[in-house]
Amino acid sequence: MPAVSTTTTKRADRSARPGFRCSECGWTATKWVGRCGECQAWGSVAEDVGPGGGAPRTVATAPTRAPARPISDIDVESARARPTGVDELDRVLGGGIVPGAVVLLAGEPGVGKSTLLLDVAARAARGGRRVLYVTGEESAGQVRLRAGRVGALHPSLLLADENDLATVLGHIEVVDPDLLVLDSVQTIASAAVEGTAGGVAQVREVTAAVIAAAKSRDLPVVLVGHVTKDGSVAGPRTLEHLVDVVCQFEGERHSRLRLLRATKNRYGPTDEVGCFDLSETGIAGITDPSGLFVSHAASTVPGTCLTVTLEGRRPLATEVQALVAPSAVPNPRRTTSGVDSSRLAMVLAVLQRRLGARLADQDVYVSTVGGARVVEPAADLALALAAVSSRENTALPRGLVAVGEVGLAGEIRTVSGVGRRLSEAARLGFTRAVVPAGSLDGVAAPDGITVLQAGDLAQAVVAAGIGT
C-alpha cells in the first residue's frame, strides 16, 4: 500500500478545518477572534460552514409565483412612487415611496424620527390608506400622547407595541396595511434566532423577514434605525445593502432645523436634501430655509460675511461670523461652531502667510447663524473675508456674498454650481458677489447682481472693499 506523505495529510486537514468569516465585511480567518481584523467590528466573526464536498445545498427549485414574462409586458404603474404628503420627504425619496420598497431612516435619539414618521403615517391614513405603526421602544400610550400633540390621530392609523418578530408578522397578516412603520428595527427580536435584540444575527433576521413580507405584498415599509457614536447606522453593514433606501436624519440638539439626506436610493437621486422645522407642536417642511441662516441686523457689523452653500442640489445662504481679539494666553484660542476647526486653522495660516495678516497672537472665534453646519470648501472665501473684516474692524458692504475655495498658495479655486449659488443670492436680494476668476466663463450672471472675480486672496480682499 503506498504511503501518504505528511505534507498531503496536513493539507487535507487544513482544507477540512472550518473557517470563520466576518458578517460585516467578509474577512476570513482560520480561527475565531472577537474582533474583525479588517473592519475592527466586535462580535461579527462567526464560523463559516460551507457546503460540504463542493456540492450545492439547494438542489430543487420551489414553485414560482408567476411565470417569466417579456420585459415589455411588465406593468410599470405598480412601481410608480406614491407621494407621502410631506413634500420635503418626497423630494429626498424621489417623488414618494414605491410599493414594496423598504426605507431605513436613521438618526440620533431625539432628532425627530418618530415625530416625522407619525406625521407621514397620519397623512397616509387621511389619504384613504390603512397604516400599521409598530413601536418597540415606547408604549402605545406614549405614542398616543405624541400623536395627539402633533395632530396625528386618525381611525385608519393602527398602533401596536410589540417586540416579537412573529407577532409583528401576525399583525401584518391581520391588518393587511398599505404602509408599515417599524420603530425601531433594533428593538424587534425573533425567538428562532439566538442573541438579544439589536445583535447582528437578530437585526439581519428581522430585516430579512420584513423585506420578504414587503416584496410579497407590495407593501412599503419604513424602518427606524439607531446610529453609532460616529453617526453611522448601527447594526451589520449588510443591513444597508438589504434595504432599498437609506436616509439620515440630522440636526443639532439645540436647533429646530432638521436635515434629511438619502445616502442610498434605488428609486431616485442621492443628492437631494429635505429641510424640516421641529417644534413642540410637530414637524413641518421648510421650502425656503435660507432665511434661517442669515441674521437680520439693521446695520452691518465687522466680521460677518455671507456665502451660499450647496446641500445636495439645494443652495442655502449662510452667514459666517468671525471675532478676532487679542489673546491673553501664550496659545491663542481657535473656537468654532458649525465650521470645521481644521479648515479654519488652514485658512488662518494662509491669511497670515500669503496676505500678511497678523493672527498668530489673536484669539479667533468663528460661528454660523441659525445652527447651520458648513462643511464644503466653497465657504473658505467667506471665512477668510470675515476674519480679515474682524481683524481690521471694517464691515463688509451690505449685500455682498462670497463663494470660493482657498488654496494653500493663496489662490481662489473655482467650485461647482456657481450659477445656482448666484441665482439664489440674487433671489435673496444680494447685489455683489466675489467669486473665483474664470468660474463664469461663458455663463451670464443673474440680473441684479454684480460679479467681482478674484484670482487670489489679495484681489478678493480688495474686491470686497476691506483692503488696499
From TrEMBL:
One of its GO terms (molecular function) is hydrolase activity. It holds the Pfam family Zn_ribbon_LapB. ATP binds at residues 107-114. A motif (RadA KNRFG motif) lies at residues 264-268. GO terms for cellular component: cytosol. SMART domains: AAA. Residues 363-468 are annotated as: Lon-protease-like. Residues 78-227 form the RecA family profile domain. Residues 49-71 are annotated as: Disordered. Gene3D superfamilies: 3.30.230.10, P-loop containing nucleotide triphosphate hydrolases. One of its GO terms (biological process) is recombinational repair. Keywords: ATP-binding, DNA damage, DNA repair, DNA-binding, Hydrolase, Metal-binding, Nucleotide-binding, Stress response, Zinc, Zinc-finger. Residues 56-70 have a biased composition (Low complexity). HAMAP family: RadA_bact. Belongs to the RecA family. RadA subfamily. Plays a role in repairing double-strand DNA breaks, probably involving stabilizing or processing branched DNA or blocked replication forks. NCBIfam families: sms (TIGR00416). The middle region has homology to RecA with ATPase motifs including the RadA KNRFG motif, while the C-terminus is homologous to Lon protease. This is DNA repair protein RadA. The gene is radA.
